[in-house]
């Protein structure tokens, strides 16, 4: 009986192994036979292109427009998670020519006519249905949708997105097939290479079978960063294994400083296109065929575009800091973000202590447009940078002045509505008082300062002193921005 039991167990084990092999074969057949995209893959859109790669917190509107101005063929957004995108509201800003996808009180994605046929939205997701819901919301405003399977950051690990999905190829295939079969725009994805080249080639063949139009390949492992040499041979092997365009990425550190270097990297990897990230941050004019421009000229063009579309100054100063860090020696770089982040208006940015270094003082400020005049008489807003040092907060603060005036004139107490801008961790405040709404739209670092700033708006509108030091009477006409409802990102 013992011998028969052992034989029975071995037979069962062999049967299980054969069944597992059959299941793997069926999955491969499913990938090949059941893929039926709604639209044929538009691979020619991604052939022979130089592309601005997706970059965390940097691939936003001004950077994308600047890359296009200098010669990039296509531009990718920074990664936007489907979980957030599906809750966005689409609105149009006719005055600035923008389409905004707003989530809560900040713009998750902004685009305009200048990039409409050249921008690809990169999405982070791990749910096919959620990805489709989010992609359908934006597909009419972008050239294509890209799914991020290449991000190696801790946030990607926490949410199990990006490169942490590469060890779940079945889910990768499900997400891509769901999008390809149900969207009217091209679908692509971006990956990193796996430790085993055979596993990498098997993965990219399965990805190709879903009907995607192109494949972006960052030539590094998930655990590797840009200080590690890019794996050119792995990218080249992938280009030989698939028939769709391969977009090579990861060559900035070693290969790319000029446009000619981009072409050289494309030839070295045998890819059809190249996407550039780090070299584009250092100097976005890397896309110019006639050579790169001086960095101060690039920064001037960058800030000018940001001013044109009234881009969030908080985000702009962060992006400028990244550019500065890659171009100037440490002794010229502010030790923290505070020096640039103290600038709360574009006028202050042009006059800050680093304006000469960046030559920002040469930028012509954007004039106030006629459309910015008040439309709703009951909504009074000012772009007011509130400086705490200009007021005596403890004894004669704007809030105490307003509350005292309301009590003396038998008016109901003002009601304060605090607005938190989650993306930047700052606050603004709206005051509901005497049938009107008073709003200081410049964000403050805490709730109390936001309340004081809006009190100043209210006091100035009422023609009352606002408690500013060395100011006998602050009852001067304010420069209202009218229905200025653009929340700072």
List keywords for this structure.
single chain, 489 residues, alpha/beta, TIM Barrel, 16 strands, disordered C terminus
List the helices and strands and how they pair.
Elements: H1 2-33, E1 50-52, H2 61-70, E2 74-76, E3 80-81, H3 82-85, E4 89-93, E5 98-103, E6 106-112, E7 119-124, H4 128-138, E8 144-149, H5 154-159, H6 169-182, E9 187-192, H7 197-209, E10 214-218, H8 232-241, E11 246-249, H9 259-269, E12 273-276, H10 278-282, H11 295-308, H12 313-325, H13 338-341, H14 346-351, H15 355-358, E13 379-382, H16 393-396, H17 398-408, E14 415-421, E15 426-433, E16 436-444, H18 447-462
Parallel strand pairs: 1-2, 1-12, 2-7, 3-7, 7-8, 8-9, 9-10, 10-11, 11-12, 13-16
Antiparallel strand pairs: 4-5, 5-6, 14-15, 15-16
Helix pairs in contact: 2-11, 4-6, 7-8, 17-18
Question: Would you give an account of this structure?
Answer:
It is a single chain. By secondary structure, the chain is an alpha/beta fold. The chain folds into 3 domains: 42-291, Alpha-Beta Barrel (TIM Barrel); 296-362, no CATH class; 371-462, Double Stranded RNA Binding Domain. It is built from 18 helices and 16 strands. The protein has helices spanning 2-33, 61-70, 82-85, 128-138, 154-159, 169-182, 197-209, 232-241, 259-269, 278-282, 295-308, 313-325, 338-341, 346-351, 355-358, 393-396, 398-408, 447-462; strands spanning 50-52, 74-76, 80-81, 89-93, 98-103, 106-112, 119-124, 144-149, 187-192, 214-218, 246-249, 273-276, 379-382, 415-421, 426-433, 436-444. Helix 2 (61-70) packs across helix 11 (295-308), helix 4 packs parallel to helix 6 and helix 7 (197-209) crosses helix 8. Residues 32-41, 331-338, 367-374 and 471-489 have low confidence and may be disordered.
């Amino acid at each position: 009986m013992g011998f028969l039991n052992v034989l029975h167990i071995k037979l069962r084990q062999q049967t299980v192994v054969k069944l597992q092999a059959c299941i793997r074969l069926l999955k491969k057949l499913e990938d090949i036979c059941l893929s039926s995209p709604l639209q044929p893959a538009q691979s020619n859109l991604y052939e022979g292109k130089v592309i601005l790669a997706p970059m965390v917190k940097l691939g936003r509107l001004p950077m994308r427009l600047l890359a296009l101005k200098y010669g990039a063929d296509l531009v990718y957004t920074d990664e936007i998670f489907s979980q957030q995108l599906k809750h966005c509201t689409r609105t149009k800003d006719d005055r600035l020519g923008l389409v905004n996808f707003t989530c809560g009180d900040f713009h998750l994605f902004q685009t305009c006519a200048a990039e409409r046929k050249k921008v690809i939205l990169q999405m982070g997701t791990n749910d096919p249905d959620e990805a489709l819901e989010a992609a359908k919301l934006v597909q009419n405003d972008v050239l294509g949708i890209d799914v991020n399977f290449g991000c190696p950051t801790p946030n990607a690990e926490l949410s199990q997105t990006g490169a942490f999905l590469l060890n779940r190829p079945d889910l990768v295939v499900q997400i891509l097939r769901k999008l390809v079969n149900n969207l009217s725009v091209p679908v692509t994805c971006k990956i990193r290479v796996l430790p085993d080249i055979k596993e990498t080639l098997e993965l990219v063949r399965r990805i190709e079978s879903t009907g995607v139009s192109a494949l972006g390949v960052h030539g590094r492992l998930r655990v590797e960063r840009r200080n590690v040499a890019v794996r050119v041979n792995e990218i080249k092997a992938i280009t030989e294994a698939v028939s769709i365009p391969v977009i090579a990425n990861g060559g900035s550190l070693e290969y790319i400083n000029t446009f000619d270097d981009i072409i050289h990297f494309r030839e070295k990897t045998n890819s059809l296109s190249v996407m550039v990230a780090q070299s584009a941050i250092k100097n976005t004019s890397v896309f110019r065929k006639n050579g790169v421009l001086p960095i101060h000229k690039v920064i001037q063009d960058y800030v000018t575009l940001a001013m044109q579309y009234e881009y969030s100054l908080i985000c702009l100063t962060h992006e400028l800091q990244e550019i500065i860090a890659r171009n100037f020696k440490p002794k010229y770089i502010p030790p923290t973000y505070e020096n640039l982040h103290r600038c709360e208006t574009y006028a202050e940015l042009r006059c800050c202590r680093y304006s000469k270094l960046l030559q920002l003082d040469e930028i012509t400020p954007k004039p106030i447009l006629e459309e910015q005049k008040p439309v709703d008489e009951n909504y009074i807003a000012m772009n007011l940078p509130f400086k705490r040092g200009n007021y005596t907060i403890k004894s004669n603060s704007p809030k105490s002045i307003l509350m005292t005036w309301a009590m003396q004139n038998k008016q109901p107490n003002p009601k304060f509505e605090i607005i938190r801008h989650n993306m930047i961790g700052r606050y603004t405040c709206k005051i509901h008082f005497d049938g009107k709404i008073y709003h200081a739209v410049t964000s403050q670092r805490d709730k109390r300062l936001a309340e004081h700033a809006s009190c100043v708006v209210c006091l100035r509108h009422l023609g009352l002193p606002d408690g500013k030091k060395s100011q006998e009477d602050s009852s001067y006409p304010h420069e209202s921005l009218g229905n200025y409802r653009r929340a700072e990102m």
